[in-house]
Amino acid sequence: MSKKEVEIFNESFKDLIYEITEDNKNSISIIECLLKGKITDEEISEDIELRLNVVRRILYNLYDAGLVNYKRSKDPETQWYTYNWKLEKENIVKTVMDKYESPFEEIKGSLVYEDNMFFACVNGHIFNFEEASKYNFICPDCNKPLNYQDNSFLIAELKKEIMDSNEKFKE
Ligand SMILES: [Zn+2]
Fold it and tell me: Where, by residue number, does the polypeptide cross the bilayer (predicted)?
């Protein structure tokens, strides 16, 4: 990855963690612990001086999102369970990439869409021919007539947007 891509990755990763746990400071500390090889809830809790129940809540949130996994083992003496956590690194990268990719994919998707004939009302609700004819060329959202749109300008705009996004991947 280029320096720029690493920056984008890190930013997207932080956004993702916030979405999942709503607590970036503690979540990132926990992830750093796992990277350092502190793998039980108790070790992590001690290392970053954070209450055990908070550590567990965050770990379970990350687990639900598929970013960490655990192995449970029973202590033969105390009969207590120990949870050994590990990062699902591949999943983390994949999840971040997907998340970052999606606005980009959306642009590409709409470009294919706009290559067809399309119809719009004055309020900017857009439909392809099939949809527009199904609604008898009346916008189902606002009841205004749907008119044929010359899409060459829009396509040019979208192409420019994609070029700009591609530009961000370079360096
Ligand atoms: Zn409309």
Answer: none
